[in-house]
Every structure is written in structure tokens, then in C-alpha cells.
UniProtKB/TrEMBL annotation:
Native species: freshwater metagenome
Protein name: Unannotated protein
Keywords linked to the UniProt accession: DNA-binding, Transcription, Transcription regulation
Gene Ontology molecular function: DNA binding
Domain HTH tetR-type per the UniProt entry, residue ranges: 37-97
Keyword Nucleotide-binding: no
Pfam families, A to Z: TetR_C_33
Stored InterPro entries: Homeodomain-like_sf, HTH_TetR, MT1864/Rv1816-like_C, Tet_transcr_reg_TetR-rel_C_sf
Amino acid sequence: MSFPHATLSVKLTEPYGSGTMLTMSTLKKSASEFHHGDLQAALVMAGLRHVEKHGLNSLGLRQLALVTGVSPTAVYRHFVDLEHLKASVAKASREVLGTMMLDAMESASKAKGAKAANERFRAMGSAYIDFGLKKPNLFEIAFICFDAPRLEEDSPNPWELLMSSLTELNELGCISDKNFKTAPMIAWSMVHGFAALAAQGVTGTAQETQASKNDILAAVKKALDIKVI
């Protein structure tokens, strides 16, 4: 299932574009170390770093050409316009989110059974909110639809991680078949709504935000009528 909107420092270990791996070592490379095959990835990662630090509004193709040490003409070989670049940075931002969710699930529990599945589901929701709290600029761009060529699917894909977790809970009998039909959008909407508020810094002090986060995650469990069998 696709990420639910129109177009479709954290480790990214899946291929981007033409076979380039986005890893921690990729993030740390200087511009001069990128050869032609890596230029698209270099530009996306430079854009990702820029947006995380400065926000979306000041992102530009010529600026990234300077950062990566290439000519503007070289940049336009990979991106038809600024919208195309922004869409690619948005995709990379969602992959940062997906990686945070996946890491949180793996850290929560690797065991089998209902209790472990519930722990992974909660950890995933917590990581989603943390993405808004800790990386508000990436959160903002991640969910904007840009007028750009269709890109490859996000990997890891946050929506697919949610569906996988809910499917596991359903198969274990923790979520009824009836509730499972509406569970993805209910869970996504509740968690995303609070994460968006957190990203804007309007959820109070750190202590108040943590308490509200716990309340939201508990409310999701209640709304889906999740049971530990």
C-alpha cells in the first residue's frame, strides 16, 4: 500500500535513485568525493541537511550546486526544477521518519506474541511523534505534495510499517476484523495530529508534551480497542 498522499543524522540504508546507497558514510562525504553516479544522492542529502537546519523556504537549486561543488547545469540534469528537488527531499524526510519508526520497533521488542506486538506498535507511534518534536523542519516538508515527477516508493515506508504492525495485531486477535478496517486512518490521524502540534512547539513544556504524548498513545489503543490476549 502506498504512502497516503498524492506524490509519492539518521541512517538510510535503502537505494535512492539510480542505485546509490544513502548511509551514514554518504551523509558525511564532502562534495568533492561524489562522482557522477552519486550526484543526485549528494544533492538530495545536501537539501535534507539544509531543510533540517534552515527550513524549506531558503532551499534552492543554485545554492545546492555551490554546496556540492558542481555547476547549476549539472544540477538540472538530475532535477527538472525546484519542485522536483523539494519532492525528493520530502521523500528522504519520510524515509528518515520510517527509519526512526523501524528502529523504535526493533528496540522495543523482537519477541513474538501479543504483548511484544503491542510494544512495537506503541514504540512506532512514539517515534512518529518524536520525529515532529526533534525534526520539525523535516516533518513539515515530508507531508507536502509537490508538482514533480513521480518518485520511487519510500523505503522504509511509514505507511507500510503502520499497516504491517496493525496486521500483526489483527492476526494475533488484538484488533477485531471490524476495527482493523478503520484502524490505519484512525491511528495515523491521531498520532499525526499531535506530532504536527508538537512540531509547531505548541504542546507546552517538555514534561507536558511527554504527558500528552502518553495520553495520545493510550487514546489510540483505546480507539482501536486493542486487547492483549
